[in-house]
Design brief:
CATH class: Alpha Beta
CATH architecture: 3-Layer(aba) Sandwich
Oligomer: single chain
Helix content: 55-70%
Bound molecules: thymidine-5'-diphosphate
CATH topology: Rossmann fold
Strand content: 5-15%
Length: about 220
């Protein structure tokens, strides 16, 4: 008997089914172009008559919007408090929006999810990727994406694309953003079947085409 048959991966044990809906997440560093890709994908799916819910973290609910203001635009927040605030946002968000939408058969597209916290708080803030992963898994009660698209951006390109008024996390140094990038890539390498890594330096339409192809395969495949 193979080792994996004796000890199934934690992901296999903890992950709950998202059927009848389908759950897609876009992740990546600041300036990766996630919001453009979220918009292109939602428009394409909606034009085919699919029922789509677009949301983002932090935010998406009234409580989430309040947490977003505190954690991104407020004064200093201690790293552990920051991790807990992002976890609280996701816990509420999953209960209020994501789980009901998936249960109703919608395609949920989210701009950031648990991996952002693992990469930013776990790797970037150095709180420990495994600890933040456990915290996030608990917060979302095993509701994980069917597909996570990582838009891989270098700190230099990300910096050049950011707006004039960076938020608390965007203002961090390149070393922080590089650690975040490595965090995302490590997560994708662990579970290639559930991830798609795309070079964020490609043209938006090229990225969209790669994402579309993978979504079509994934939606058609049994889950
Ligand atoms: P985002 O919504 O992508 O920013 P914007 O709309 O300004 O482009 O993300 C906001 C910031 O929050 C981003 O720097 C990443 C950070 N973040 C975390 O650090 N942990 C998390 O769990 C999430 C969801 C976001």
């Amino acid at each position: 008997m193979s080792e994996s048959a004796i000890a199934p991966s934690v992901d296999a044990v903890e992950r709950v089914s998202t059927a009848p809906g389908f759950f897609v997440c876009f992740e990546g560093g600041d300036g990766a172009g996630k919001s453009t890709q979220v918009r292109l994908l939602a428009q394409a799916l909606e034009s085919e008559g699919r029922d789509v819910l677009v949301t983002r973290q932090p935010g998406g609910t009234e409580l989430g919007a309040a947490i977003r203001r505190l954690v991104l635009h407020g004064d200093h927040v201690s790293p552990r408090a920051e991790a807990l605030l992002f976890a609280a946002d996701k816990a509420h968000h999953v209960d209020e929006l994501i789980r009901p939408a998936l249960a109703a058969g919608q395609i949920v597209i989210t701009d950031r999810y648990t991996d952002s916290s693992i990469a930013y708080q776990g790797t970037g803030r150095d709180l420990g990727a495994d600890e933040i992963r456990d915290l996030q898994r608990w917060a979302v009660a095993g509701v994980l994406p069917d597909l996570t698209v990582v838009l891989d951006v270098s700190p230099e390109v990300g910096r050049a694309r950011r707006g004039e008024q960076p938020d608390r996390l965007e203002s961090e140094a390149d070393a922080f953003h590089d650690a975040v990038r490595q965090g995302f890539l490590a997560l994708a390498a662990r579970e290639p079947g559930r991830y798609l890594v795309v070079d964020a330096g490609l043209a938006p339409e090229q990225i969209h085409a790669v994402v579309r192809e993978r979504i079509d395969e994934a939606v058609a495949a049994p889950r």
